[in-house]
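Troubleshooting log. The previous run stalled partway through. Resubmitting the same two chains, unchanged.
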Amino acid sequence: DAKTTQPPSMDCAEGRAANLPCNHSTISGNEYVYWYRQIHSQGPQYIIHGLKNNETNEMASLIITEDRKSSTLILPHATLRDTAVYYCIVRPGTYNTNAGKSTFGDGTTLTVKP
Amino acid sequence: GAVVSQHPSWVICKSGTSVKIECRSLDFQATTMFWYRQFPKQSLMLMATSNEGSKATYEQGVEKDKFLINHASLTLSTLTVTSAHPEDSSFYICSTQGLGGYTFGSGTRLTVV
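Second attempt completed without errors. Output:
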């Protein structure tokens, strides 16, 4: 799996947008960008994933640069419950047998403050 | 979406005993299950990959005789920590790929005393 680099921590005011960056300069052409988050003492929760186009779902938006070497996860209106560790991972798509074998970096600890 | 049920959510055991952790896929068939370990304030580290009906594949540095993995059916994978010691105290998490994406169990907090 390609290595990812994320800032260790970020703060965000409640109600504001949280923008979490991720660098993945060695990403391969068949690798997707996945984002998960982990709230203390729970299993990681899937947020969103994409290949090259920007993606949006009910939780977040994912912006991937044209060269695919970096991406940004956007939580449009952060709440206190969004405080968690956010992991950016790159790996082959769903139907690759090794797809679930994810290499987790250290992630970004997002703290949403009132 | 896909649901993986992991239990127990926490367990305390005495040093030298064995502990079994179960992960069940509730609404899909999981041919492959991934087992992770997470120490406090650290990221998830992949321990092994289990495939239904065959031997598990262990990551470098993970003792296969200590962490026994069984994946006897398409809906159940188990991890047994044998002869547990305090240094095995950790958060253990399973993961699989189901319909529409990847799912993680809720994790098991193991404390060996």
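Takeaways: The mean pLDDT of chain B is 91. The first strand of chain B starts at residue 4 and ends at 7.
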